[in-house]
């Protein structure tokens, strides 16, 4: 058979193959554009507004990034990717300036051009990680300069510049200087070595421990890009309920592999240190921090780590809390434990972040007071490289808590803020709750520690007490789900956390606006609607879960739904009944002088305000006060009626949120629209579940009828009590 014949004979097969190839190409191109949320806020889709596109293209007719370090290479790659996508064309990378405009990027150190464009002067006010972006000219040619004192400053500047394009801001007359207000801006992963994630609702851990160090998922780079884009500069890779195995040589190689991927993005790795590691890994007879054998074990371990990872960040420690070992096992204090690790890390500039989340019921004291009681007397006894990491409120990441009284009470110790990004008590991976309003409520709270103007933000950024060390930690909501966070709007909480760690004075609305533009659309209708829905969502969640200062009404272990009736757990403070104290007469925890006196841990005027039932902000009423069901509130309603109305308002609120979301149909892609739509259906059902379950239970206690016109619960209390969720995600095996 000749070739021609062969071709003919194979013609149908050839056509099938061709068809297949075309189909595969179409499929992959559709898939590549599929809006599955993977790109997060780093979507560099072509700018639709033709005018703006033209203006941008003129201003960036050529671009050049100077320098050769790994971090500069990241900046160059990001800019290439961003410009190509947003401007939809390959802009020449060239040091030739264009008459219409050019972009010059780098430190003055790396480039005579940048030096000649006045960078030194612009960098006067810029610190080691900050940057300046400004418009100047060379001859008559306009030039936009992105510069910093360091390569990482340049990378942050590049992300800021791309954000300007993504959010469609003018770039012709720029004069921007930005410095991070907080030095250590960290994610805390509660990821276990078996890839489960404690309180994780987005699949498994993204750290593929088994296949590390040889298999490097591209996701690790995308993770680093996303974090660097919002200024996060450190990540604690492992759960605070720690596993000593992470310190074994083979695991340290895995950590090194991740550190190598993150370094070009300015991200340092940190680990959680299990206090008993010397016993568990090497059979030492003790982990007593004052024992010289223990001290040298840690010194050697730290030396081993720094040999592999010279820029290792340090340790995060949960000690003597919820069963974790710690210095108190040896009658030593938290300071003894922290200082021993701090001494081992000090020669390498590593830090210890020692958590203040402790509550031992031995003292039979109000749980809300325990951390303060234990830590405040230790103020001044920690080494210079120790930060004490404090949750935003005194109990545990509730939908709403008053600020932790430790803020302002330990002026000699740098305190770190610990926020939870993962929504353990806020609907987990299912409810749309934008957390920036909750974060800013805490950050803007004026503690009055040194008189007016003593906001939490100023305490944690080190301003108020002149601390060089400062930090913020966010318990991550990231998993290996394609969209990273399970709920698409979980991405906004990761984003908002990072933006606030950079600048805790930012506004929740401003952050929402940026995120919506970068993630969904620059269309005013979409921005208006989605921003309204985000900004109302936290208050609404508080209303349908824990209104008027109620807290910890969550069902056992998984914390997914309501369980206000639970009263059978071995530790007093694991039971919701301990927190609400409802009986026939009334409800609420008396934390005034007649009760636990937790109010006394706050500075004046908060102490007196919280103490007084009429001056206490209503949102904290039942946190600080026991109130009779029939007592009248400011609104003129009885407490019982107000409670019913709050739960109702929460449910109505979710219906409103859903309607607002429905108004963007057709204005954003259908994939993400539908996904969020389905989630909001669930949220509506579950808000109603919270309302009905809590009010059925509280009614069974108060014995009062529902207010006039109130739609009564649709199921019985027995039904609500019978619900169980044995496989709820994020639950620890021990539950
Ligand atoms: O909120 C509780 C969580 C625990 C968590 C603990 C902590 C890591 O339910 O899962 O453990 O807080 O913050 O240490």
CATH topology of the largest domain: TIM Barrel
Mean pLDDT: 95
Ligand set: 4-O-methyl-beta-D-glucopyranuronic acid
Look at the helices and sheets and give the structural class: alpha/beta
Radius of gyration: 28 Å
- The poorly predicted ranges are 1-12, 18-32
User: How many strand elements?
Assistant: 15
**Main sheet?**
8 strands, parallel, barrel
> What is the number of helical segments per DSSP (H or I, 4+ residues)?
24
What is the beta-strand fraction? 5-15%
Residues in helices, as a percent range: 25-40%
Overall 3D shape = globular
CATH superfamily of the largest domain: Glycosidases
Question: Can you describe what's shown?
Answer:
By secondary structure, the protein is an alpha/beta fold. It folds into 3 domains: 50-178, Chitobiase, domain 2; 184-506, Glycosidases (TIM Barrel), CATH 3.20.20.80; 543-589 and 626-722, Alpha-d-glucuronidase, C-terminal Domain (Alpha-Beta Complex). 40% of the residues lie in helices and 10% in strands. The protein has helices at residues 3-9, 11-33, 50-59, 70-87, 112-116, 119-122, 151-166, 218-229, 249-262, 277-282, 292-308, 334-345, 367-375, 436-443, 456-460, 490-502, 508-519, 524-545, 576-580, 606-611, 621-624, 639-662, 670-702, 717-722, and strands at 62-65, 102-105, 131-138, 141-147, 175-178, 184-188, 234-236, 268-272, 314-317, 351-355, 386-391, 415-420, 471-475, 586-587, 627-628. The longest helix has 33 residues, at 670-702. The chain is globular, with a radius of gyration of 28 Å. The termini are far apart. Residues 1-12 and 18-32 have low confidence and may be disordered. The site of 4-O-methyl-beta-D-glucopyranuronic acid has 11 residues, from loops.
